[in-house]
Specification:
The complex is a heterodimer of chains A (116) and B (113). With 116 residues, chain A is mainly β. Chain A contains no helices and 11 strands. In chain A, the strands form 2 sheets. In chain A, strands 2, 4, 5, 6, 9, 10 and 11 form a 7-stranded mixed beta sheet that branches. A 4-stranded antiparallel beta sheet of chain A has the order 1-3-8-7, with no helix packed on it. Chain A is globular. The chains are: A mainly beta (116), B mainly beta (113).
Chain lengths: 116, 113
């Protein structure tokens, strides 16, 4: 089905472990984003990518790594998970126009991560 | 101070009521103003999109932007139980040379049948 899919939807891990959250979109959107959503903070941008092999930091990038070797995939890795990274993670994409940064964001259904 | 402030609620209203949701912001460079709706355990979906000041209407929903007061609103007329969700405001600008698309914390709305 067309859209943006995230996996896994639920993940429990332990402090210090590496975790990778996957994101795949079928629209060929140029822009892709990773947000985390926490009570009291709302959605905060972790990293974004304007195109394959182009990534940039958002508001809360520390402890996260991203890559974008293919337009359709944008994995997010927590290299050494901490309890403060317990959150709901949303991947999003946006159409590739000059106004892409202002346009509609299409979100996945989220990955709920718990770090024990 | 956060760039975007939004009352978290929760807000409970009876079916048929008019709902007013609001956000304030501090960055005068914001040019684009959005409202997203997020159902429980789902990703946000765009509801309304407005450029600069003014009103925009779409069915039962009206988005209002007052740039002079740095205040945006979403009005829902004849509210329905299916409107029960979290509503997030979002704002963006491109003048700073870097990507900036900021969300409010969201207001939880419950419409009672």
């Amino acid at each position: 089905d067309a859209g943006i899919t995230q996996s896994p939807r639920y993940k429990i891990t332990e402090t210090g472990r590496q975790v990778t959250l996957m994101c795949h979109q079928t629209w060929s959107h140029s822009y892709m984003f990773w947000y985390r959503q926490d009570l009291g903070h709302g959605l905060r941008l972790i990293y974004y990518s304007a195109a394959a092999d182009i990534t940039d930091k958002g508001e809360v990038p520390d402890g996260y790594v991203v890559s974008r070797s293919k337009t359709e995939n944008f994995p997010l890795t927590l290299e050494s998970a901490t309890r403060s990274q317990t959150s709901v993670y949303f991947c999003a994409s946006s159409e590739s126009t000059l106004l892409a940064v202002t346009g509609e964001l299409f979100f996945g259904e989220g990955s709920r991560l718990t770090v024990l | 101070q956060k760039e975007v402030e939004q009352d978290p609620g929760p807000l409970s209203v009876p079916e048929g009521a008019i709902v007013s949701l609001n956000c304030t912001y501090s960055n005068s460079a914001f040019q684009y103003f959005m409202w997203y709706r997020q159902y429980s355990r789902k990703g946000p979906e765009l509801l309304m999109y407005t450029y600069s000041s003014g009103n925009k209407e779409d069915g039962r929903f009206t988005a209002q932007v007052d740039k002079s007061s740095k205040y945006i609103s979403l009005f829902i007329r004849d509210s329905q139980p299916s409107d029960s969700a979290t509503y997030l405001c979002a704002m963006s600008e491109t003048t700073s040379g870097t990507y900036k698309y900021i969300f409010g914390t969201g207001t939880r709305l419950k419409v009672l049948a």
